[in-house]
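[agent] plan:
  1. take the single chain provided in the ticket
  2. run structure prediction with default settings
  3. attach structure tokens to the ticket
  4. add a short note for the reviewer (M.T.)
[agent] executing step 1
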Amino acid sequence: MAAGISMATMISVFNLLLLTLLRVRSVSATFSIMNFDCPKGSSYSLNSTYHSNVVTLLSSLSANASRSPVGFATGTLGAATSDQVWGLALCRGDISGSTCASCLKVAPVYAFGNGTVDYCRGVKDVSIYLDSCLLRFSGKDFLASPEEVANQVLYSRSDVTVTVNPGRFMELTADLIGKLSDYAAANNSALRYAAGVMTSSDGFKTASSHQNVRDIFGLVQCTPDQAPEACNRCLDRLRGDMLAELNGTAGGQVHAVWCNLRFEIFHFYESTPNDIPRKMAMPVHFSLTSAEKRCQSLLDWDTRYRIICGTARGLLYLHEDSQIKILHRDLKASNVLLDADMNPKISDFGIARLFSSEKTSTLTSQVVGTLGYMAPEYAVRGHLSVKLDVYSFGVLVLEIVAGRRNTDTWFQSEDDESGTLLTYAWDQWSKGTPLEAMDSCLNCQAPESEVLKCVHLGLLCVQEKPADRPTMMDVLVMLHGHSSASFPAPSKPAFAFAYNDLSSALALSESRSRHAETSGYAVCERDVNIRVQD
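[agent] step 2 finished; step 3 output follows
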């Protein structure tokens, strides 16, 4: 999780805009309906006892939620089973109590109809999602089963599309939503809410603008009564739905009763930031500014080597020491968190796969993960095994040694085609100059034997055949050995060919990922950060 502090490290610090306990401003009195759900399975007569109970309960929920410091209320009314109604009201975490009350007073118009708007008139089970609040009532006790209700997901899609690099736009959006979700679920305030902005120096083109859009604004919220684990689980599910359903759009919302998220290319929430915690884990991120600035901000070799060894130990625990084998499936730089002492922790298990002790591999039709870190047998055929994590670890090791991402363009070949990090590392290895793959900022400060060991090990981990890759136990033995001279010679990496061919080879994987239940993406832009909004 990012912290708003400045550190002379290789990490680009993510400053999350954490709007938590501040409900001091009001927004426009006009509230837009974003979505609604009123299935026709059950109905009631107007002026019936059930109708009277609904009206009374919604009035009570509006009053209670607007007076609540967290903008939330639940309740039930009615004695007879057929007339009993359960309800929930939630206001967005950045609005005032008066704005909350105004928003919740608008919602019944859509629930009951007014002659002009009759979305849900006479329906017993209704969910109304406005831009600043949501309201739900039902003749069934949905309050007793939040996990079940969380599966009822609705989407709102922007009419604006991203026309250039839509995949990268969604990758950044997913990273923003993921970090906001981590904070909303884990922070110590009563609100399960966070909002923030991610800024890309390169920007994106949209169909409605000739200029680059640089800022992506995001907001996530859970109902305040949820435990951190339940909130995170709910938001993780919505993030997966967002990636599957809203890819290519420049904005959108995913609605569920117990949690919701939104992203836009314009500022849509109130922006008075709270103090940012100083001791928080930070995602590893490689800053790619000018050479001089970059060398001043990078981690030294000892810290990089400690990150490599610590990540290897973490994967070994998941693969062999845990009672149930765990395949992470999305190991990448932004999913390795560093504590205040720069000790690495593997994070984001949203798409992890569990294996029994007897089973070590399987096939899946839902390929999810991050392009550039996915092993070829998984990206193309859906073959899952621990060797997928080993491949991702190899890419990560080479990135740490080089100080750059695998997805960056590294050089132009004789055919004028771009090469990736794996291509470049293999090319230098084949020429007998593996140290050329090392970050130039590490010259004269890194032991050549350790750098050589890591380049050698990284290439072993990204070999095309899974059987040729080492296990994580092998990796740790190699890391703590004296020399790489005893290592087997690596074969050509799986994706060590021209960049254009690489893009074609991954097209199938990208297409399949769009239809998966959930997905993970890496930050692929230069100088990306989440900044505090003034």
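[agent] step 4 note for reviewer: Residues 1-29, 272-294, 412-417, 496-534 have pLDDT under 50 and may be disordered.
[agent] ticket updated
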